[in-house]
Amino acid sequence: MSTVIFAFSIFCGWLIFDIVKHRKIKLEIVLSSLIVAIIAGVLWWLLDLLF
């Protein structure tokens, strides 16, 4: 469950950062935020398995 919360937090943070940076919402920005969140979630899950 913590992995999902972490990935969602990364998604929201990355999305807010990109919206402030580019001053508009585009599909490309949302998809890049989603990809980063998925990668971060998978890495967080792997770290959780290891430790």
UniProtKB/TrEMBL annotation:
<keyword id="KW-0812">Transmembrane</keyword>
<feature type="transmembrane region" description="Helical">
    <location>
        <begin position="6"/>
        <end position="22"/>
    </location>
</feature>
<feature type="transmembrane region" description="Helical">
    <location>
        <begin position="29"/>
        <end position="47"/>
    </location>
</feature>
<keyword id="KW-0472">Membrane</keyword>
<protein>
    <submittedName>
        <fullName>Uncharacterized protein</fullName>
    </submittedName>
</protein>
<keyword id="KW-1133">Transmembrane helix</keyword>
